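Prompt: May I have another protein with tokenized structure?
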Amino acid sequence: MDRWQVMRIFVKVAETASFAEAARHLQMSAPAVTRAVASLEETIGARLFVRTTRSVKLTDAGSGYFEDCRRILADIAEAEAAAAGTYATPSGTLTVTAAAMFGNMYVLPILTEYLDTYPAMLGRSLFVDRLVNIVEEGTDVAVRIGHLPDSGFTAIRVGSVRRAICGSPAYFERHGVPRTPADLKDHRIAASTGAWSSSEWRFANDQRVTVQSSLQCNTNDAVISAAVSGWGLTRVVHYQIGPALLEGRLQIVLADYEEPPLPIHVLYPEGRHSPAKVRAFVDLAVTRLRGNPLLK
């Protein structure tokens, strides 16, 4: 087995933290992957992984070698792709992931515009409310909301979101506008029962208020509809009510008490070595998301 192939196996084991998972991705047997890594360690003269029955972790030497291998393999891929022309024109399938509602509202229009620009491309969306493993699930680009852990991926900040309390103008005319978080006890609340919901609403300076919701819904769409109808107040991530805000169907209150906003990033592996299909989408997504006034 040549050195390039052994390095490729080593990198996949490091990325997946599993010999068996790396073998599945590479369509090899697990023993063949294990032998390749053992041979590499013997050739280098250093242990690259700490193996236990439950985990596979890089050693200090392995971590440094991993970064070097990724760079070398990316250079090889870029050289081959440049010779084949694949870095000049987007081609193939592009897979993009984002949170479900954010993806439908803000990423899908970018993806369809991208496909209109490059009709030979195929697009695939993975809009789900869970953290997608970019490497293991074969995703090209992720749009992530929140603070990012160190990953070695390229991340470009494109905006921010915040949790906002809102209601309809008709509701405020009938019931008044809350001036402080404590005033929420005098208002009807529609609350989501989703995975990230809580009856304790947090505000700036670590101020917390436990709200009593008279209406509980399992989707944000439902609580937004209740607020638009004038039934009561709700709290959602502000991008989710962007159209209703622009149309004047909802108004945000208690903005001065909001927690600091969360960043939005476009995240992708390989950096400048990314193929044309990724670079073209990233350029478009960064322009469109940064230009969206609802994501400021």
